Amino acid sequence: MTTTTLPTPARSALARILTVARLHFVNKGQIIVVPWLIMSFIFAVTLIIGWILRSSLSAADLAEAGSGMQYSGAIGYFLVYMLVIAVMAISQTFPFAQSYSATRRDFYLGTIVAFTTLSLAYSTAVTVLGWLEDLTNGWGLGVVLFSPGYLSSNLLERFYVAFVLFLFFFMMGIAVASVYVRWRVNGMLIFFASLAVVILGLVALATVTGSWGAVGAWFVAMGFLGVVSWTLVPTVLAAIVGYLLLRGATPRN
Amino acid sequence: MTAAIEATGVTRRFGSLRAVDDVTFSIEEGAICGLLGRNGAGKTTLMQLLTGQDFVSAGSISVFGQSPVENASVLQNVCFIKESQKYPEDFKVKHVLKSAPWFFQNWDADFADQLVEEFRLPQGRKIKKLSRGQLSSVGVIVGLASRAPLTIFDEPYLGLDAVARQLFYDRLLADYALHPRTVVLSTHLIDEVSNLLEHVLVIDNGRIIIDDSADNLRGSATAVVGTKAAVDEFARNRQVLHRDNIGGISSATIGTLSDDDRKAAAAAGLELSAVSLQQLIIRKTGTTEKEIEFSA
Amino acid sequence: MDDSRPIFIQIAEQIENDILGGALPEESQVPSTNEYASFYRINPATAGKGVNVLIDSGILYKKRGIGMFVANGSRARIIAARRAQFHAEYITPLITEARNLDISPEELTDMIRKEGNS
């Protein structure tokens, strides 16, 4: 028998990667609707609390409560939820994309495209909402949700911080889920055990060498923006490690 | 003849277990081929290797002339429907029907709609809420409507009733006749599919033990029944696949018989009956009938 | 379809039977390979093989772009071929079994005559 030529004309790499990216958005419930529903709920609760405070507290108490709200972690929830979405995208959509005959490489790059797009969209949304919040003086109630005090008033800078953080959580989710897809539960156990050892080791190192002062000084010197920028290092590392792991993964039952 | 699939010395080890053990075969382009064998024989592993979902430990595989592993131009011609396919959380049937055409160039949406109606699949229902049979029909519909040049079905119809299975066979045959393609069908319902197959591969313990055309296999074994003495006499010097005794009556499953053999058997007062493909495979793999019937 | 013989031979025989029985008169069009495949629920390649057996032996012929037809005189040829096989397939086993049952040739002839007249 002789071998044959391919039955269908090859598609470009870009087309294939964008197809995978599209696959992540075919069911918008998980990736868009649910997180924003929860966000809306948090927003509503925050507004109600703000209204209750406004109508029941004295001006002095209000100022104090307001400063407490400067550090509300509502956005934090949103970021962690993105990590969950990324984990599901890898652990569930990877075996599914394999059934659609996507290569691991196309799947991975398509996933990165999808989540970078999502990061851009969500950073823009959060920035715009923060801008509106400032503009309306806390939605008319002095409420702080999208514009916590530690962010600069520069919108571009805010957008950058949000974008980098979204990327960080997405890529962490992708990397962790890739460990799972490649080595299953045993891999996860070993991964988290190793992670704990590394962190404890670093803490011990800092303690033994008496360099906590230096560490603190580094954070102060970097400033908020600097520290956020430094997360790009683990973000990129996670993206690379995720690919190396997924490249050898097989969809199993 | 051109080969859609060529496997040479393919082995897949999991630790010390050889799930697929030094397997060599080819599947002709445009044929419907059965990949048969008992549970755990290595069928699914072999299909995962053929579709680049798993990696060989040794040997080589070529699909449409190239290695399938991470090879997009090969894989875009392949649709592999797996019995245990996982879908993303909260996916609905309509999400599958919407996204599948992006990946399969030959996708026929009208055909898919027709099948959804015929299999009575609720489009708006979540995949995880589907019954076992409905879940199987999602796979069957994607496999048929994809019209992929190489379509592989691994136990495609668990939970489907006889009517729905017949519908699958009928649609497969009719669509295959209009749009010829290479189909690999793995199933334990061998009697049901034996007439659909052009070629048969039987895998047992990771090894290919039968690789032949369905025409050759048909009639390649005969059950000979008679008195024990007569059967003993006839079975001597012949290949016996199986022996059974009840009282003084004996039955032997014997390899290919010539016309003269048949006359000799008739003259010796022996009764001859055909052995079905399923029976033949049971005899050759040392399985009991129950095991094949109820394996899933 | 019975399990003892290749399906394509059984398909060829079935078409011959249809010609003998008058369901497919000479010069009439024969169903397509795909129609046979879906009717008998068999592989189209196998159905094609069965049809080709009859084309090779001149029972059927192809009209380009139209389909397959029953050749003129094919009924007589099928009868001739089957008559040749009749002895081996029916008479020999009949005589063998009759002998086993101690049925004399005269008795057997009587039985056949009675059956033929009824």
Task: Give an overview in words.
The complex is a heterotrimer of chains A (253), B (296) and C (118). Chain A has 253 residues and is mainly alpha-helical. Chain A has one domain (13-247). Chain A has helices spanning 13-23, 28-56, 59-69, 74-99, 104-135, 138-142, 155-208, 212-230, 232-246. The two termini of chain A are 35 Å apart. Chain B has 296 residues and is α/β, with parallel strands linked by helices. Chain B has twelve helices and 13 strands. In chain B, the strands form three sheets. In chain B, strands 5-6-7-3-8-9 form a six-stranded mixed β-sheet, sandwiched between helices. Chain B has a four-stranded antiparallel β-sheet with strand order 11-12-10-13. A three-stranded antiparallel β-sheet of chain B has the order 2-1-4, with helices on one face. Chain B is globular. In chain B, 47% of the residues are buried. Chain C is mainly α and 118 residues long. Chain C has two domains: 7-72, Winged helix-like DNA-binding domain superfamily/Winged helix DNA-binding domain (Arc Repressor Mutant, subunit A), CATH 1.10.10.10; 75-117. In chain C, 64% of the residues lie in helices and 8% in strands. Chain C has five helices and three strands. In chain C, strands 1-3-2 form a three-stranded antiparallel β-sheet, with helices on one face. In chain C, strand 2 (60-63) and strand 3 (67-70) form a beta hairpin. The chains are: A mainly alpha (253), B alpha/beta (296), C mainly alpha (118). The A-B interface holds A 1-8, 10-11, 13, 16, 19, 22-23, 26-27, 29-30, 88-89, 92-93, 95-96, 98-106, 247-248, 250-251, 253 and B 1-4, 6, 26, 28-29, 48, 51-55, 62, 64-66, 70-82, 84-92, 95, 98-100, 102-106, 148-149.
